[in-house]
């Protein structure tokens, strides 16, 4: 029977190797494979380097860390038989077959895509095939160490998040998207199939949610294929990546008839501080995108020290719609602004730009925000971000939040504890409408407290709201436990109110009243 001292001595090598692999993060898979080979039979050092595609110095370091667990003979290096069980249990736990076959995941993806939202041309949506979503997930599984990994998807109309969690159950995934329909669809499927997917709303043109900065080992995106779109999404990915061991996987394709465009995009990626570790042509296939042959390449990018920098706000990044590179709203004339002032009850000298990453505190004249290019979600986010006593929001006359009584009531249901709303359709001209918001002076309860502090962490603000509105003395600990008991996903408590998908935002603001 082994003594505790003998067990501790036996564990020195494997624990040293484990620590080295842990330091490598998602890039540990080829290093782990070194020991899979050493268990099977003896291998020479050149064989280990070639098969595992790992630098010689790294393989030598691993062998040195394993110490006496690795023996060297005429045929090369091999793991001592007495150490096999320890290494299988403590080091090779990830070398198991996936519980689901690729074909089963592909079948499920077909169902998910068929019941999902239609592509939005204004957001450059082109649907990837179900085989492509599974191929992306399989690439992650086969090339990275995913046991404790956290994957971020910047946009996910193709439902790659769901394919990844089905194929690699131990993977945690966060999805950021502008399209509220996609976030709701992913949430519904994730809940039904108990998949670890957390969704966050953002328009990356205005910034990355603060809770997502420096938190991810892997980032995947299929961005708009303009140089501006590729550059913006790459910059946001760099903000989200944890360190130099993180990797960015991008889909991008260009026509062989227009190589200059491909060159411009690749230059933009290099300018953003990325180096191309791998380019796999023909990796992604689409229903559409025929101008580029319905396919695009997989770019595997490694960040350099220059990559971790932010970029300014950009709006024109798409190839179609009101925010394409060719479009652009003209500055309103004096007559337009004069008529607009008549609607909001104050002189309007200029329109203010959209954006909600920071609180919109204003004084003096009534601010009017230019939301003429709003693809749908901006109005709600701007109402949450704005803390003016009165504000106007200029939107298209066919904006989805104002075209019917039901739509208007749905918007009021979310922001009603903060603002009273007036909908002035067909003003100041037939193509536009103005939403006038008047701040409620008092009341609103918990929902009002949260709505007036939309840029604070939900968990902290909600706890403060409970204490402030409690008729009895309530401790911070009791308030925190109360809040945690009310939310379905504790990850939401680390977000800001402006980052929540709309369907969860509405539910959260009315949770306390229904509890």
From TrEMBL:
Coiled coil spans: none
GO biological process, one term: polyamine biosynthetic process
N(4)-bis(aminopropyl)spermidine synthase C-terminal domain sequence ranges: 109-298
Pfam families the UniProt entry points to: BpsA_C
InterPro entries: BpsA_C, rRNA_MeTrfase/Polyamine_Synth, SAM-dependent_MTases_sf
Matches recorded under SUPFAM superfamilies: S-adenosyl-L-methionine-dependent methyltransferases (SSF53335)
Highest taxon above the source species: Bacteria
Keywords annotated in UniProt: Methyltransferase, Transferase
GO function terms (MF aspect): methyltransferase activity
KW Cell membrane (keyword) present: no
Listed PANTHER family: RRNA N6-ADENOSINE-METHYLTRANSFERASE METTL5
Protein name: Predicted methyltransferase
Organism: Actinopolyspora mzabensis
């Amino acid at each position: 029977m082994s003594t505790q001292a003998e067990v501790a001595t036996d564990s020195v090598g494997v624990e040293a190797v484990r620590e080295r692999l842990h330091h490598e993060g998602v890039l540990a898979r080829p290093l782990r494979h070194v020991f899979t080979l050493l268990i099977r039979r003896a291998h020479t050092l050149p064989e280990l380097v070639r098969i595992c595609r790992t630098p010689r110095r790294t393989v030598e370091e691993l062998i040195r860390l394993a110490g006496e667990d690795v023996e060297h003979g005429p045929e090369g290096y091999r793991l001592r038989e007495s150490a096999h069980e320890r290494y299988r249990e403590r080091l090779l736990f990830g070398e198991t077959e996936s519980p689901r076959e690729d074909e089963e995941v592909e079948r499920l993806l077909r169902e998910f895509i068929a019941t999902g939202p239609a592509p939005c041309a204004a957001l450059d949506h082109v649907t990837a095939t179900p085989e492509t979503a599974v191929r992306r997930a399989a690439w992650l599984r086969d090339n990275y160490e995913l046991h404790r990994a956290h994957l971020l998807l910047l946009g996910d109309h193709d439902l790659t998040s769901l394919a990844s969690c089905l194929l690699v159950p131990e993977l945690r995934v966060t999805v950021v998207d502008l399209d509220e329909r996609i976030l709701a669809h992913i949430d519904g499927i994730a809940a039904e199939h108990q998949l670890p997917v957390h969704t966050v709303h953002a328009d990356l043109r205005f910034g990355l949610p603060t809770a997502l900065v420096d938190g991810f080992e892997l980032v995947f995106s299929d961005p708009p294929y303009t140089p501006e779109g590729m550059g913006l999404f790459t910059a946001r990915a760099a903000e989200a990546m944890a360190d130099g061991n993180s990797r960015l996987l991008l889909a991008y394709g260009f026509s062989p008839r227009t190589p200059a465009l491909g060159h411009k995009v690749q230059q933009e990626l290099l300018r953003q501080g990325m180096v191309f570790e791998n380019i796999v042509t023909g990796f992604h296939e689409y229903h559409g995108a025929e101008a580029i042959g319905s396919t695009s390449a997989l770019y595997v990018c490694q960040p350099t020290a220059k990559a971790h920098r932010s970029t300014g706000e950009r709006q024109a990044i798409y190839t179609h719609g009101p925010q394409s590179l060719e479009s652009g709203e003209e500055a309103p004339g004096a007559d337009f602004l004069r008529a607009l002032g008549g609607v909001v009850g104050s002189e309007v000298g200029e329109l203010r730009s959209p954006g909600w990453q920071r609180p919109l505190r204003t004084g003096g004249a009534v601010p009017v925000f230019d939301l003429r290019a709003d693809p749908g979600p901006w109005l709600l986010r701007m109402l949450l971000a704005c803390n003016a006593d009165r504000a106007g929001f200029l939107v298209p006359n066919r904006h989805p939040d104002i075209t019917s009584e039901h739509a208007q009531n749905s918007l009021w249901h979310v922001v009603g504890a903060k603002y009273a709303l007036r909908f002035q359709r067909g003003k100041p001209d037939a193509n536009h409408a103005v939403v006038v918001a008047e701040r409620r002076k008092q009341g609103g309860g918990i929902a009002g407290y949260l709505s007036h502090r939309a840029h604070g962490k939900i968990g902290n603000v909600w706890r403060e709201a409970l204490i402030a509105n409690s008729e009895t003395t309530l401790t911070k600990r009791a308030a925190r436990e109360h809040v945690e008991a009310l939310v379905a996903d504790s990850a939401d408590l680390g977000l800001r109110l402006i980052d929540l998908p709309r369907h969860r935002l509405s539910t959260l603001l009315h949770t306390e009243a229904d509890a």
